Description:
Number of domains: 1
Number of helices: 4
Radius of gyration: 16 Å
Helix content: 25-40%
Mean pLDDT: 83
Largest sheet: 7 strands, antiparallel
Amino acid sequence: MKRLVGLCLLIGACGSVEKSDWEREQETRLLPEEQAVALPPYPSRGELLEFSLGPTREFRFFIDASSLSVADGIVRYTLVTRSEQGTQNVSYEGMRCETGEVRIYAVGRDGGWSGKPGEWRSQRPWHRTLYREYFCPFRQPIRSRDEGLDALRR
C-alpha cells in the first residue's frame, strides 16, 4: 500500500490521498496557534462577489468582499451559497493555505452569527476552487485583501 501511495504521489495520478490522523496531528503541531478571530458584520447583498465552479452547478457561490482578510497565513472570508430555489447558507470561514484545510468559525442565522469554531477539515469542491484560483496560489496565501478581491473580480 505504501508503494502505491508513493507512486501516486510521484506521478500525481491518484487524485488526492487522504491523510491519516497521525499525519494531520503532526502537521498541526508544526503550525503556530491561531489567534482569536473576531466575526465580521453580517454580509450585505451589495458586497457579494460571485465565483464560478462551472456552468452546470445547482448553486451560486459568493464571497462577501468586506469580510475578506489575511493574517497568520490564513485567508478568512464570508461564504454565501444560494440554491436555484433561493435557499441561502452563510458561513464565516478560514482557509489555511499551507495545509489546504478549511475551518468554519460561525454560521449565519437570521441576519447574525451563531455557533462556535469547528475543527480544521478537508476542502469541499467550492473550497478547492477558492484555494487554487483565488486565495492560495502555489499553496501560499494571498499577500493582501486587495489581491484576493482583484482575483475574484477578474
